[in-house]
Design a protein that fits this description.
Elements (H helix, E strand, L loop, with lengths): L1 E4 L2 H14 L9 E4 L5 H9 L8 E4 L18 H28 L2 E6 L25 H29 L5 E6 L5 E6 L2 E6 L20
Parallel strand pairs: 1-2, 3-4, 4-5
Antiparallel strand pairs: 6-7
Helix pairs in contact: 2-3, 3-4
């Protein structure tokens, strides 16, 4: 198992904490993989640094939320969209041939894209706005959730499209799922107002062939 993240030292700390929390866990099977999703180039580089001969399960779980940095990324995109969608897009598509080869040789493989019910904050993706600096009306909690929601909607559409293209090519044993991570309670300070935001477990219904949305069993 590989844990991917931006810094090798923090990844190693995570592996150490896992070992402390779960003493029976063998850390010899846990490895760090340096990955920065904030640009296409570093996302592709991270994928290419994975040198194992097989990849059975790929979980795209990284991301940012409520980032009020108004500047666009080095690639010229709004930062939530860049990190949460485009970075994962570049990382997954670079590794997709290996995932397909694994499924062909070992029977099946899986890709899980961690989305969110946060996609319900938006009615679509503003493709013009995501190429510009963030305006004042899109800052703060509500604006941040809208920008986050766009990236999560993109996650879902991306997973659906990968699944569709794989089936179109006759690849039936690579399972692609977009999943909501579960029910949690988050506390956010917005000015002096404390907001308690409880996220429901299930995604609202969308048309999703091959059960690409919903519960995931790895």
């Amino acid at each position: 198992m590989y844990l991917a993240g931006r810094g090798l030292s923090s990844l190693q700390d995570s592996i150490t904490r896992l070992k402390t929390t779960y003493p029976d866990l063998s850390t010899s099977n846990l490895h760090p993989l340096e990955l920065d999703l904030s640009s296409i180039a570093t996302s592709v580089a991270g994928a290419k640094s994975f040198l194992e001969p097989r990849l059975d399960i790929l979980i795209a779980n990284a991301g940012i939320a409520l980032d009020n940095n108004t500047a666009v990324s080095s690639d010229g995109w709004e930062r939530h969209f860049q990190t949460n969608h485009l970075g994962h897009f570049a990382f997954i598509t670079t590794l997709l041939p290996l995932v397909e080869d694994t499924a062909k040789e070992y029977g099946e493989a899986r890709i899980a894209v961690v989305a969110s019910v946060g996609y319900t904050f938006v009615n679509g993706i503003d493709f013009d706005a995501i190429r510009k600096e963030v305006p004042p009306n899109m800052l703060g909690f509500i604006g941040g959730m809208k920008r986050y929601g766009q990236s999560k909607l993109a996650n879902i559409l991306f997973a659906l499209e990968i699944a569709r293209r794989l089936r179109e090519r006759g690849v039936e044993n690579v399972w692609v799922n977009a999943v909501h991570p579960g029910e949690i309670t988050l506390l956010h300070f917005v000015g002096l107002v404390l907001i308690r935001w409880k996220v429901r477990l299930s995604l609202p219904a969308l048309e999703a062939p091959d059960s690409s949305l919903g519960f995931l069993h790895l």
